[in-house]
Amino acid sequence: MRNKDNATARNPVALPAGFGAAALGVVAFSFTFPATSFALRGFDPYLIGVGRAGVAAVLAVVALWLMRAPRPRGRQWASLGVVAGGIVFGFPILSTLALVHGSSSSHAAVVVGLLPVATAVFAVVRAGERPSPLFWAASVAGAALIVAFTLRNGVGSFSLADALLFGALLTCGLGYAEGGRLAREMTGPQVVSWALVLAAPITVPAAVVLSAATPVHWSGAAVAGLAYVSGVSMFLGFFAWYAGLAKVGVARASQVQLAQPLLTLTWAWLLLGEHAGVSTVVAAAGVLVCVLVAQRARIARAAAPTRPEARPEVTLGR
Fold first, then answer.
1. How many other CB atoms sit within 10 Å of the CB of residue 85?
2. Less Cβ around it within 10 Å: N or C end of the chain?
């Protein structure tokens, strides 16, 4: 665990440094669908999808001020725009609507098990990584299990909820890969915080308007669900996640998320009383095996750019 990245990438036994951070992010994200289900008991789906980013944007401003974070430069703003499009707008809104259109938390969790494959593809395109054939074999095997599960539980066809979930995972995969690449130049907390601030001129006013224009039924469960997806799923979880992506590599770290369906199935059973059938458990266990194989595959990584020194004259702070 103390070896450098290029050394651990060749080690077929030891997990790479940064694996723990990525795993912590996955644990945080695994509660997202159950928490969203709770939030839907009292809030409009669009308010949840956009409002959680608005709340997180306020937290991001405070975090940037406390970190005295340097402002992004040049092309970093464009990259942050891609990150915001994926993790601030794409995934939150589309996944929430999927739950509204009939998907259970358990079903959504397993379908989004395809996210690591999407992220790995974008890691090749955007982050210059080159996974080995063994890595792709494990990833495709996991994807095949997810597709088979989706078709079986959709009676041989994809539903509107499935289409929304696939849209969510594609936009999220791009946001993950771009954020992981950018986290080599600035810290993970700064990446997600600046992405939230960049989107704030849209998310904050929209959240205010939706909170006034849509019916709200206050309850402890609904507020707790909205608080979780705003403060953890949309903000704190990315601190660990982007740190893991930058340290381990986007493609390799993304495969850790293959374990997320199994975790979400557990929380959905414990918190929502959702029954996970045999096919659901088999699919989740299968992708968990795939992540273990992918973690031991070799991946060539592009040289990481040197993180610029903070410039005091352009800091956001006191």
1. 18
2. C
Token pair in block for residue 193 = 């915080």
Whole-model pTM over 0.85:
no
For residues 92 and 212, the answer to whether their CB atoms sit within 8 Å is no
Least trusted range by pLDDT, from 104-108, 239-243, 297-301: 297-301
Look up residue 143 and give its two tokens: 């994807």
Structure tokens at 105: 């938390």
Q: Is residue 42 within 8 Å of 26, Cβ to Cβ?
A: no
User: Once rounded to an integer, what is the mean pLDDT over residues 184-206?
Assistant: 93
Taking the CB of residue 317, how many other CB atoms lie within 10 A of it? 11
260-267 helix and 278-295 helix, angle to the nearest 10 degrees: 140
Rg (CA), the chain: 19
Structure tokens at 31: 């509660």
Number of neighbouring beta carbons within 10 Å of residue 68: 12
